Write the structure tokens for this entry.
Amino acid sequence: MTQTLQSQPYAPPPTDSAHRVAALNRNDKPFHVVLAQQFDRTTVDQLCQLADMIRSIGGSRQGNQFLSTLLSHRRAMLYFIQPSTRTFLSFTSACQIVGMRYGEVRDRSTSSEVKGESEDDTIRTFSQYFDLIIVRHPMEGFAEHVATMLNEMSRPIPVFNAGSGKDQHPTQAMLDIYTLYRSFLGPQGTRSEPRYSRNVFAGKTIAFVGDLKRGRTVRSLAYLLCRYPGVRLLFISPPELGIGEDILDYVSRHGIEYELGNDLRKHIGECDAVYMTRLQDEHDVAGESKKIDYYAYSLTYEMAGQFRPSLAIMHPLPRRHELDPRLDALPQAKYWAQVRNGMWMRAALIASVFNVDVAIRDHYQAYYTF
Ligand code: NCD
């Protein structure tokens, strides 16, 4: 069997990050959704607002019918060659909400890659049938590589990064911000001002816990949180699985206060949000993380007495033992809401990239405001 597999990470283009972002954006907003750094504060806030509007409109049969006509002339391709439950299903649900049909490849052994076709040609093929390509891939930099390649095609179409190796997972970060916002604002927020514009993150302590070296969701969310001055970040991890220097550099350059730690128990009482993660041992080279005692990076039922009443417990899921299922019943547990929020946020991202966000806002203004 011939297989052309890329075994090295795709190196970022040899330009600075401003140029990388510019190559992914059109008219100053994301066209490809590849890096969390593409999203400025206004864009994040507007997308949270749009996700709320889609959620409200989608609550009625008529509203659903309206949404499902918006992109019924467009098709998405999901190329997911890494395991996925939530990201895959929330993207397919998001496509259904805005009326987009979709195709999928979830296993390379079913594509012509086994006949020796390159992955690049596989993607070029998708671009001839579809209007959007959503990729999840084990290699760092893959989505950015696809975006660069698609920019050169005669029919450029957007690519969404649904997780690329250990580096980024920007749509997860967007749904995480949306969930944190909703949690800090409370269910109703304030009616007297636009719901997502006040910096509710200022003065809040957000702890990232676990395998921060290889957890792409943490890396993307750390980038996004830098849009909110006054937030304080705590990175709690085993010493060998610490957050990357590139992230710490970015955080410092943006004037965000941070602290490194290695025992969650010491810090839990000061947290406004705690972002738990599992051990990413699929990236082990020789089972090295088996030696790590992950107990200090676990949230147990016994710790609940130390939680602030307004704490937001987050997890991108899947979880293992680092998050006790008995915590699910607490009001502080936000991870199941996080799953559902992902569907609305991804629908908002698709709507925005395909410029139907204005139609959604108009519909909302006409029918859902008093
Ligand atoms: C995460 C991922 O794949 O990076 N899951 C997800 O997309 N919600 C987290 C993980 O696998 O640990």
